[in-house]
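Throughout this chapter, every protein is written as a compact record of paired, labelled lines. The reader may check this reading against the record printed directly beneath this paragraph:
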Amino acid sequence: MLNPGAKLGPYEIRDAIGAGGMGEVYRARDTRLDRTVALKVLPAHVAQDPERRQRFEREARAISSLNHPNICSLYDIGRQDGVDYLVMEYLEGETLAARVERGALPAEQVLRTGVEIADALEKAHRQGVIHRDLKPGNIMLTKAGAKLLDFGLAKATAAAAGQGLTAGPTESKPLTGEGKIVGTFQYMAPEQLEGEEADARSDIFAFGAVLYEMATGRKAFEGKSQASLVAAILHKEPAPISELQPMTPPALDRVVKTCLAKDADERWQTAHDLKLQLQWVLEAGSQAGVAAPVVARRKIRERLAWALAAVALLAVVGVGVVARQYARRAREMSRVVRSSVLPPENSTFLGVFPGMAVSPDGRRLAFVSRGANEKALIWVRALDSPSAQPLAGTDSAFHLFWSPDNRFLGFYADGKLKRIEASGGPALTLCDVAQVSAGNWSREGTILFGPAATGTGPLYRVSAAGGAPSPATKLDESRREVTHRWPWFLPDGRHFLYLARSLSSPENNGIYVGSLDGKEPKLVLREDSSAAYAPPGYLLFVRQGTLMAQRFDAGSLEVAGEAFPLAEQVRFNGVARRGVFSVSDNGVLVYLGGATAGPAQLLWLDRAGKQLGALGDPGFYGVPRLSPDGARAVAYALDPQTGNADLWLYDVARGIRTRFTFDPAIENLPVWSPDGSRIAFASSRTGQFDIYQKASTGAATEELLLGTEAGEWPASWSSDGRYLAYNRQAPGAKTRYDIWILPLFGDRKPFPFLQTQFEELGAEFSPDGRWLAYFSDESGRQEVYLVPFPGPGGKWQVSTAGGARPQWRRDGRELFYLGPDDKVIAVPVKLLGSTVEIGVPQPLWQTTPPPVPGRHWDAAAGGQRFLTVASSETGTVPFTLVVNWPTELDRPR
């Protein structure tokens, strides 16, 4: 091995990047041109083997005759101190072999990569070079496209025939043994195995095996020994691609089957012919096929399309009815099919905006459901099966998203971003993060995620293997952007969609395309909604409760024509600006109906969660807060279409309400003054949240208490009326969310109270004003803590297994908080001068996950009654499943 810093001619070794039977490969620097190159080195002891030296020289001659964008370039050759070396183009990316280990590639990527490699083979064959070792390990996937590598076994077409099998007994041994044939067994044509001369059609056979593996994630030919593998190649046919991946274009089966013909005369005769076939399938899309050869495959596709619809209806209308209604129409392949998906028996979908995601291959649906045991888990249902399976270890999961190979699910829970195998297994933590909006996973293994539904900040990126997250976008101050959210990767794995929002300048809200390379983002659509990309080239988003589809070129990043309606009355979270829908790569769409969630109700509950009565009429409410005397309540009421919210006052005894704020922005998070005469609240009217106050009679004008370049919102008012605790988030600040104090006397100069690199939120003054409860993610998950005010002093952890959003009982004897499973928890507390005694937490009652974060309940005096927000929906509103939805857009209009 060569050490870093060593030189071969003008090339300085940086590090080793590979080794094998033909020598070693290093990353090096060309000191003359100051560029990074790859050095393939044949050490002196290897060069003594005539066969290996001949192979090394053959590779140099082969590559030197080729100049093609999809073939790794040869820059130079050299020899120093008995060491021969090739200087080649340095490629950043991964081998196709490594990519296929994660599962099948999407059909579009299979075809695009196939066209590139076929074009490279055409160039080589025209130059009289046969590769003879074409396999996934010799194809590199880079940002610039596929690259064909390793011509060490290449030969000129005028050379003598290749070596045959060595005579001798047939051994049944593992496939790791060194073979006697030139090439790699799984990808060798029958004529090579039989000792005949390899020609261009032998490369085409190998390429067919590579295409098959790309499309299915499985090798075309397998065996437990060399003998059984050779027998499979000579005598067996691999299962049709369409049986393993039913949504692939039917014509791809024909293309690959022709490549894998046992008789070389029955294959595509040139790489040029094969390239043209692949280009045609790519351009024709998912319906590409030829009538006679694909009848069986078409029936398979029909059965799957109708199975998705029919089986999804089993739980609704029964097996017999489904059979009668759908079997007779199974031949209508292009028919758009709609059906319903209900939650599992004795369970409900979670919340009014339930988390769900359909897999990229359109075969499975993941969703969050709460069972009879009140535990909320991720469930996975194969769409051709009537049953779903829960995934243990996914308690309190939100914001589901699939890995591109359909193997894993990403989700957020307990202050962490996690992943789990969709078939079950342990959940692995990827990174700590207080709150997120939905994530998205690229084929290159990068996960993007954004801030919480009501949070501010850019998108972040983290490796799918885990690590420290880092910003992936930057807020544009010129557009007064406050948040980027809802990322969605485009097919190239580098560009992605996201929603950018400005609360003060809504005309700047829109769907943008960003890049992992940090390039300037590009506005795609002036729409205020999450968006998803779906092949063969559409953007899906929600406009006024209607799911729209807009033609979009993922290469030029341009939209075309007008948007078409796909479905009406699609559930839309007006605060988070997200539609409840999910789309696969192959024409399967799932969405939740009802353009808005059913109205909620303010309810009185006892400590066991028993309903004691209602307050007011149903509406879209949140964050109720009782006045100090308990006679009144204040809560926000949401306009679900515009996303705006205003505060309303309630007379508890009479049950009537009056409007308290009127600005066309978001007013939220009310806090009563200790005497009940004023209400402080947050408003977004200036572009970020500032703190205002207003007399609780509603008669006086609003007063700006605090407005800076940061976002601030009130949390708690001290019992003596002298201090207001509030949360602060400064754009770009390293300290994230902090707790600050605003004195309401003197010069009113605010000061930081808790300011660390972690998130501190939800400050609550104790009734005597001497303690402050809050929650923080400093331990890696959110927990509730107590500290003395104004300090200094110690710190006590109140929660034991995760907690957030604390509230004091009015007499200071208990703290209530929200547990990680959305249950309200009560903890006895004794305040003893400079110390405290904390009792054992006791769960009280189960809350319903709200559409936006916040404490959507408030304890009355004595801690025996709670005013809370409860959805009027039961959680059994079904998802709508649509199969083959792009067909609807292809109809004449």
